[in-house]
Write a structure and sequence with these properties.
Layout: H1 7-23, H2 26-33, H3 41-49, H4 69-82, H5 88-100, H6 108-112, E1 118-121, E2 137-139, E3 142-151, E4 158-165, E5 168-174, E6 180-184, E7 194-208, H7 210-245, E8 247-248, E9 251-252, H8 257-286, H9 291-316, H10 328-338, H11 345-355
Parallel strand pairs: 1-4
Antiparallel strand pairs: 2-3, 3-7, 4-5, 5-7, 6-7, 8-9
Helix pairs in contact: 1-4, 4-7, 4-8, 5-7, 7-8, 7-9, 7-10, 8-9, 9-10, 9-11
GO molecular function, one term: acyl-CoA dehydrogenase activity
Organism: Actinomadura coerulea
Family: Belongs to the acyl-CoA dehydrogenase family.
Amino acid sequence: MKLVVTEEQRELRDALRRFFADRSPAAEVRRLMETAEGHDPGVWRLMAEQLGLQGLAIAEEHGGAGFGVRELAVVFEEMGRAVVCSPFLATITAAAALGAGEGGHDLLAGLADGSVIGTLAVAEDGGSWDPASVRATFEDGVLRGAKNFVLDGRVADLVLVAARGGDGVGVYAVEDAAGLVRQVLPTLDQTRRLARIELDGAAARRVGGPEALARALDVAAVALAAEQLGGAQRTLDMTVEYAKVRHQFGRPIGSFQAVKHRCADMFVMVESARSAVLNAAAAADESPGELPAAAALAQAYCSEAFFHTAGEAIQLHGGIGFTWEHDAHLYFKRAQSSRELFGSPDRHRERLAALAGLTGAAAAP
């Protein structure tokens, strides 16, 4: 696998950085945190019409651009840097499930052009993202049960549900939203919306089996890892910059050895996270058999890296780092909530050990 960033990907990164600096500055993020939708529909349209982000990794025959997860990783890294409020992760996860499934390809065009916001509902009241824990059922054409921690579940136009049918756990597209009861959940990270969905006889059709669900969760794990990498890089950058300008005892605090060591540790974690993301994204595009292990490794490590750098950013900024006015708390809350999304770091390490044959634990996502 080629673990390098191409010139085209660098150009994409530069364009995205400019776009999000203009459309998602900290002041706008704070404004969107207070809105019911949790995102700006106008920016969502621009992402689709000007940049083609929603369809970036969707096949051309289904209305997308036909790129891969490596390009998606570039997008998510830049979104993580800017703490963008957007249903992009939810929609990409839904697209991955449809793309890997045997049905529902007709639904991809709407996701690709941005006219449809999608989401994949897996976790239930226990909070587990393991398909083996799914208890929702599909029988006689309808879904019954409940889903918790659904990404952007309130605003999603297309809800894909992991449920048990006659042949095990599959993915079902809800065709009648009248059978859904949605409830917005309070969250620590106010930049990302979660919802609980009650499935009260919602009409649905099967669009994929266990393989489609596994692929979607692995792609989502890689995407989230890339987002965490972007957040970790940004917290490192802001901390280093602050250490250069904040003076104590007549000298910049960055000149003190203790501060240097902590910044150096942050740098090592960020660069290691970058390697994990590059490897996982390349596996998704070139070596699907290696993706489950690569995704588990990336998600476990990047969760810890972002949580560590975000915490260090607050500590090294001193008193101002703890205030509402400073942006450090936006990254810390995102880091804390993201490390539980799609499974905790411990869960991903357990999965990685199982895939490596080191334990008897289940190897499910």
